[in-house]
Every structure is written in structure tokens, then in C-alpha cells.
Amino acid sequence: MPSIFPPGTDPTVMSCFQMADQDGSGFIDDKELQKALSSYNQSFGLRTVHLLMYLFTNTNIRTIGPKEFTAVFYSLQNWSAIFERFDKDRSGKIDSSELREALHSLGYAVYGPVLELLVSKFDKTGGLNKAIEYDNFIECCLTVKGLTEKFKEKDITYSGSATFTYDSFMLTILPFLIA
């Protein structure tokens, strides 16, 4: 059973979802979501789309309904504003210092080797530019957000430490690696 649009949803969001839902099922799949999101002057890779779907449904099912689509849509608007705010040189890319500031504004303190690894991982040139573009910025933020939330579930005393079994660890990180 498909979800419904939250009260007060912008009619543009509803229209976008309905155009993407080509079979009228009340759900859109990953490729339909990719097409819908990419119609707003920005291309999104399937990996980013899969991470969005995973984080907004907490499942590996590759379909979403109106409620989840609305949440994705509004979240992307927020991330777009953050990207623009921290892309200080207006290059269309965020370097490591800009990324650190952007993640800090979202409540994530990422420094040193972890920050450099994120930039290297999400740089489309394999680390040559030492900067990430918008869609990869979204993927990076989703990864940091999702892994941090999963870590916090295990760090119940907020000590900065957590204990995982091997299976629990694998189940925590694999959705972010193979989305």
C-alpha cells in the first residue's frame, strides 16, 4: 500500500512524483527516482539514489512512495543550500576544508585522515581534483549521516566508543558500500 503525501506538500513535489510514477502504482523505483531528481538540472548516480532510498526507507527495497519521495525532495533542497553556502569559490566543487565546514554545520566533526579519505573516495576523478561535485557531496553526506546514526545506536552512553559483533558491523557498513 503506497504512502500518502504529507499535509502541506508543495504541489510541484506532488507533480514531480506523479510524472515519475509512470505505471500509476503509487511507488517509484530507483531509475524513476533518478530521472525525477535529475530533471532539476542535476544528475544523480544510481549509487546516490540507492543511498537516498535506503536512508529514507531503512530497507534495501528499491521503491518509495509519496511520503518518502517528499522527504527526499526536501532533504535535497537543504543539502543543495548547504553545498552552495560552502562552495565559497563557486567552483561547483567542494574541497576538503569546505567539506569539513559543511559537515560541521550538519553536526559531524570529521577531521584529518577521515576527511581526506572522504574527499578522495567521493572525488569523481579518483582524488586528482581533491574536491567533490554536488551529487557526490550528497552521497558523502548520506554516508557520513547514515554511518554516524548506526554508530550512535551502538554508542548508547555517548562515549565515542561502541562494541559491534562482526555480523553487526558488516550489516551496519555494507549498505553504504554496496548501495
From TrEMBL:
<dbReference type="Pfam" id="PF13405">
    <property type="entry name" value="EF-hand_6"/>
</dbReference>
<feature type="domain" description="EF-hand">
    <location>
        <begin position="74"/>
        <end position="109"/>
    </location>
</feature>
<feature type="domain" description="EF-hand">
    <location>
        <begin position="8"/>
        <end position="43"/>
    </location>
</feature>
<keyword id="KW-0106">Calcium</keyword>
<dbReference type="InterPro" id="IPR018247">
    <property type="entry name" value="EF_Hand_1_Ca_BS"/>
</dbReference>
<dbReference type="InterPro" id="IPR011992">
    <property type="entry name" value="EF-hand-dom_pair"/>
</dbReference>
<protein>
    <submittedName>
        <fullName>Probable calcium-binding protein CML49 isoform X2</fullName>
    </submittedName>
</protein>
<dbReference type="InterPro" id="IPR044590">
    <property type="entry name" value="CML48/49/50"/>
</dbReference>
<dbReference type="InterPro" id="IPR002048">
    <property type="entry name" value="EF_hand_dom"/>
</dbReference>
